[in-house]
Design brief:
122 residues, alpha+beta, 3-stranded antiparallel beta sheet, 7 strands
Length: 122
């Protein structure tokens, strides 16, 4: 009998478990991890439910800063294809830890200042 034909139940179990782990990882790598950025991206900044700014992220040539000081101060920087919170006077700084927003659907929220930054298709 050939060695590859002499699989035991445990061997088959390990192969199945390995495939169950490997296939989703490959799927995420080839689908989500390699998404191309959208042709038209815009960032929408709202504060306390009011529209503060709308930025076409594809047309940004130099970094643009947006600073809001009423209440809790936040500093937001928009660059070509991305936007992010850079500074915030809130205690937890979750908005800064969210990082750079580059894809449609990405969003960062500073709850204490009631500021929301989200990226949408243009």
């Amino acid at each position: 009998m050939k060695p590859w034909l002499s699989l035991k139940k445990g061997d088959i179990f390990l192969l199945v478990i390995g495939m169950m782990v490997l296939l989703p990882l490959l799927w995420f790598y080839f689908n989500d991890g390699r998404q191309k950025p959208s042709d038209g991206l815009k960032a929408v900044i709202t504060r306390d439910g009011k529209l503060m700014a709308e930025i076409d992220l594809n047309s940004v040539q130099e970094p643009q800063t947006f600073e809001f000081q009423d209440g809790i101060r936040v500093l937001i920087v928009a660059e070509k294809g991305s936007i992010k919170f850079v500074e915030a006077d809130c205690p937890d700084k979750i908005c800064i830890k969210t990082g750079t927003l580059t894809k449609p659907g990405d969003r960062a929220i500073c709850l204490p200042s009631k500021t929301i930054v989200k990226v949408e298709d243009n």
